[in-house]
Design a protein that fits this description.
The structure is a single chain. The protein has 146 residues and is an alpha+beta fold. The protein folds into 2 domains: 3-69, VC0802-like, CATH 3.30.2130; 71-145, ACT domain (Alpha-Beta Plaits, 2-Layer Sandwich). It is 34% helix and 37% strand. A hairpin with a 3-residue loop joins β2 and β3 (42-48). The relative contact order is 0.20.
Length: 146
């Protein structure tokens, strides 16, 4: 139950973030969630979209170098301690979280958070063993449309 995420480097200059967003919009590809991490000279844009292959093609055709990474999305109880529960499970199996960010929508009474672990397969197994819902890409895309 892993999902594909697109990542690309962008110069830290006005208009550089809007360019890939505009390209995807013109191609009819919706951005479900994104994250931007920056330094003084460049940034990393990370995107989750319904059709990652089409989005990758559109962006590469425009000259962007696009990296595809597998990530894991989990439902997290949207209350104090919800995230701490997930983090404790990951610590128990000795995994590292490389980065994380949240979706902008909720699923019932839960938030959805995207994680990049140093071993996604072990993370999925550990989370599911503790009753944590790991959400697949198709399921997320359907929920985002509601």
């Amino acid at each position: 139950m892993k999902m594909h995420q697109l990542s690309m480097f962008l110069e830290n200059k006005p208009g550089r973030l809007s360019e890939p967003c505009r390209l995807l919009a013109n191609a009819g590809i919706n951005i479900l969630t994104l994250s931007v991490a920056d330094t003084q000279q460049f940034g990393i844009l990370r995107l989750i979209v319904p059709d990652w292959e089409a989005a990758k093609g559109v962006l590469e055709k425009a000259g962007f170098v696009v990296n595809v990474t597998e990530v894991v999305a989990t439902e997290v109880v949207d209350q104090p301690g919800g995230l701490a529960t997930i983090l404790e499970i990951i610590e128990e199996v000795g995994l590292n979280i490389e980065y994380m960010y949240a979706f902008t929508f909720r699923c019932n009474d839960k938030a959805v958070i995207v994680f990049r672990f140093d071993n996604n397969d072990i993370a999925v197994t550990a989370l599911q063993a503790k009753g944590i819902s790991v959400v697949g890409g198709v399921e997320l895309y359907e929920r985002a449309r509601q």
